[in-house]
């Protein structure tokens, strides 16, 4: 299964990709629905599924068009089966089943979170072929998966053994950034908007309280989110249509981004010290954040920190194909494959038992 066609429709990107040997991107097509959902301030699930139905055949055709030999060169079909929006996942899973069944190809089902992690194995498109590619990530490693729906710390011993050792107990980091961006009148998705606004602000101008859940590797973001709401209301009152012109948007964005980043960095550093690991990987949409990358590298040195190029941090199908390649037969799915909107990665009951030879 060298050449894998992958499909990703878990949220609001309709994506298809062809990847060879888990690392070499032949095609990576992403049709974003962001403009469609913007006026609702977030993803409108029913609209997302309908748009996936409309766009997916075109996106897959475009990906296959870039592959020498076309359909006959495909060895397997991979698809995200969770977590995500049920209706959106169903569109991708059924489309993948149709292709796999009609061409007699193996069907592979992937967890979206695991796929985000495998974006770190991909060689970015456009890299000079004369340049030797980065070596593959070295196990054992620690991954921080930070997206719109998830904030997980995952220990990976190898491709088969991986365990969630900590996760958010309330909002995901990306969700908190999106919600605060909305309070500041910034468009969806809020993470990149906060990063842009923060570039003109002073992070120390405002101190947000930080939740430190001692004795666990878990995170909490609802406290700082509420603090941001109170702060915004202190400028605008709680009117329905608040006047945002008096808000120090850049300073709030910079301080909030810093609070989120420091919360993520603290737990990642704690976990990196507790386990013998060779690398730390960042994955998921929030891993595109420049301040997070920089702060993580500074705090973890000399442990190497790796993250995908920005466009491979956010949802795409190349990462699904990479995960499918390295998971191999473990990802093989039956024809009755279903979707799992709440799918997670295995969580260990007891973290201490991992620290000795996990
Ligand atoms: O992984 P992703 O594309 O979709 C999910 O699986 O959720 O992540 C989307 C999240 C959104 O919350 C978005 O605001 C955030 O990633 N994001 C960022 C940046 N780019 C995307 N957050 C902070 N800084 C960024 N540059
Ligand atoms: Zn994602």
What do you see in this structure?
This protein is α/β, with parallel strands linked by helices and 358 residues long. It folds into 2 domains: 3-124 and 310-331, Nucleotidyltransferase, domain 5; 141-306, Nucleotidyltransferase, domain 5, CATH 3.30.420. The protein has helices at residues 34-38, 45-65, 86-103, 112-118, 173-183, 190-198, 222-236, 249-274, 290-300, 310-313, 318-327, 352-355, and strands at residues 3-8, 13-20, 24-32, 76-82, 107-111, 141-146, 151-156, 162-167, 279-283, 305-306. The chain has a 5-stranded mixed sheet with strand order 3-2-1-4-5, with helices on both faces. β4, α3 (86-103) and β5 (107-111) form a beta-alpha-beta unit. It is globular, with a radius of gyration of 20 Å. The protein starts with a strand and ends with a helix. Bound molecules: 5'-O-[(R)-(carboxyoxy)(hydroxy)phosphoryl]adenosine (KG4) and zinc ion (ZN).
């Amino acid at each position: 299964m060298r050449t894998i066609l992958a499909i990703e429709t878990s949220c609001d990107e309709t994506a298809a990709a062809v990847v060879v040997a888990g690392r070499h991107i032949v095609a990576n097509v992403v049709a974003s629905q962001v403009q469609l959902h913007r006026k609702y301030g977030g993803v409108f699930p029913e609209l997302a599924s309908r748009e996936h139905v409309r766009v997916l055949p075109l996106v897959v055709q475009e990906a296959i068009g870039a592959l020498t030999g076309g359909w006959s060169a495909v060895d397997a079909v991979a698809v995200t089966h969770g977590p995500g929006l049920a209706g959106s996942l169903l569109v991708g899973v059924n489309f993948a089943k149709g292709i796999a069944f009609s061409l007699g190809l193996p069907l592979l089902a992937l967890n979206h979170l695991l796929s985000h992690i495998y974006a770190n194995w991909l060689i970015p498109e456009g890299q000079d072929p004369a340049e030797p590619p980065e070596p593959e990530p070295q196990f054992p490693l620690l991954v921080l998966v930070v997206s719109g729906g998830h904030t997980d710390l995952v220990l990976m011993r190898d491709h088969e053994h991986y365990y969630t050792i900590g996760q958010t107990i309330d909002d995901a980091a990306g969700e908190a950034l999106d919600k605060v961006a909305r309070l500041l009148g910034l468009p969806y998705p809020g993470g990149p908007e906060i990063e842009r606004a923060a570039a003109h602000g002073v992070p120390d101008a405002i101190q947000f309280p930080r939740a430190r859940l001692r004795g666990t590797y878990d995170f909490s973001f609802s406290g700082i989110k509420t603090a941001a709401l109170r702060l915004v209301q202190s400028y605008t009152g709680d009117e329905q249509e608040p006047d945002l012109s008096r808000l120090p948007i850049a300073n709030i964005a910079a301080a909030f981004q810093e609070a989120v980043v420091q919360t993520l960095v603290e737990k990642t550093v704690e976990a990196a010290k507790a386990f013998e690991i060779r690398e730390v990987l960042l994955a998921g949409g929030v891993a595109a954040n420049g301040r997070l990358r920089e702060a993580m590298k500074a705090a973890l040195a000399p442990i190497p920190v790796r993250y995908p190029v920005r466009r491979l941090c956010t949802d795409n199908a190349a990462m699904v194909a990479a995960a499918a390649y390295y998971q191999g037969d473990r990802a093989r799915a039956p024809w009755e494959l279903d979707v799992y909107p709440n799918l997670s990665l295995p969580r260990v009951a007891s973290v201490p038992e991992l620290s000795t030879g996990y």
